[in-house]
Design goal:
alpha/beta; elongated; Arc Repressor Mutant, subunit A; WH-like_DNA-bd_sf; 2 domains; five-stranded parallel sheet
Length: about 230
């Protein structure tokens, strides 16, 4: 089972590099993804794909993001996140009035987009966010618990977020700055050695004395290898 747990996401943007970037990232997170380069194609795909979340660029050929949002909302239960390159209050107000659930300015952080997707899913589709297995680990977002085998790990809230982040990005080298931004927030003003402290604590709780689960790559960061 993957992190997405059967959750379907529709992307609609006329910039190919954005589509490619988001498709790759969201599929890596386990989501089912379908993409369109214009509003007309987005509506055609949505009719059979039935997305839980739609990420729509405001300015697209054919139907623009506002029209696609309005039609999707009229046809079923879908969470809509609008993307725009313009910081226009009128655009945000119009999108929200048409039923958009959230709004993001380009350029944006992929981690922030993931957080907003999760927020919409918790609000509209909480039944989809059950426990998810990754190798010997099981992550349960509803209970805020992570199990290793049959053992529920005793984790602080920050340890939970850090271990969850490492598990969901298994096999990828994560730098200290990336970990700090995702777990502690972009405005964290403390010492980045706090990451080492929490990784050491997690290793103790995982019984990872030889660092085979959470590996340190000197000068690069940390990588989670699933047991």
């Amino acid at each position: 089972m993957t992190a997405g747990n059967g959750i379907r996401i529709l992307l609609a943007d006329d910039e190919p590099h954005i589509i490619d970037f988001l498709e790759l990232g969201l599929r890596h997170e386990g989501y089912e993804v379908n993409a369109a380069s214009d509003g007309t194609a987005a509506l055609e795909i949505a009719a059979s794909f039935r997305p839980h979340v739609a990420i729509l660029d405001v300015m697209m050929p054919g139907f623009d993001g506002f029209e696609v949002c309005e039609r999707l909302k009229a046809e079923g239960d879908v969470a809509v996140i609008m993307l725009t390159a313009r910081d226009e209050v009128d655009d945000r107000v119009k999108g929200l009035r048409l039923g958009a659930d959230d709004y993001m300015m380009k350029p944006f952080s992929f981690e922030e987009l993931l957080a907003r997707i999760q927020a919409r899913l918790r609000n509209q589709f909480p039944h989809l966010l059950g426990s998810v297995a990754f190798g010997a680990f099981r992550v349960d977002d509803r209970r805020k618990e992570i199990s290793l085998g049959e053992r529920v790990l005793e984790l602080s809230p920050t340890e939970y977020e850090l271990l969850r982040y490492l598990i969901f990005n298994r096999g990828i080298v994560l730098s200290k700055p990336a970990i700090l931004e995702r777990v502690w927030g972009y405005d964290f003003a403390g010492d980045d050695n706090i990451v080492e402290v929490y990784v050491r604590s997690l290793r103790d709780k995982l019984g990872d004395r030889e660092h085979r689960i959470i590996r340190t790559l000197r000068g690069a960061g940390y990588r989670m290898d699933l047991p």
